[in-house]
Amino acid sequence: MTDPIRVFIAEDHAIVRKGLRALLATEADIDVVGEAANGRDAVADVARLRPDVVLMDLVLPELDGIEATRQITAASPDARVLVLTSFATDDKVFPAIKAGARGYLLKDAGPDELVQAIRQVARGEASLHPSIARKVLTELARGSDRPPTPQPLTPREVEVVRLVARGLSNQQIAAALALSDATVRSHVSTILGKLHLASRTQAALYALREGLASLDEADPA
Asked: For residue 82, which of 64, 111, 59, 58 has the smallest C-alpha distance?
């Protein structure tokens, strides 16, 4: 039997936290390990509790959800952030994804959708509400004003971008490919430069769109 998915809830409304706890308590493979009512506590508690998935509201006191996501993904890269919010506007969606969120779900989603999203994000997959996915793909299609460099990705860079698309951190990629963390960071930087992309999220979406990776592939780590 596999270990349950450890979930942390960052939400400023107590009644919402209580409802989420009650819902997730009915799932045998999910265990809520903590909660916070503000972004600053969320960052500290996630570092201490090391959950697999963080349910992140974007409107939080003391430290907003986008900045909390940025700090969590920097300090606790194994904690995958799933945004759960009422906002679907560009000024929330793209900063949250650029901050490192692995999923983006709206609060009008059904209970089954939330549970499925948690499981997907825990596996390293992306989980986007359909309307959010359309926004992201439109943004990716627009991309940079400059075309990708004519210099193709090397075989090693293709390997790296495939693992980026599957949600692996630099440390996990380094372990999978027997490389140093610094070498992986260098590869990721070169990939973004060659493709004129701004973030790992855009690189992941590029790899999926071009058929270089599939979310159905097994995680080598």
From this structure: 58
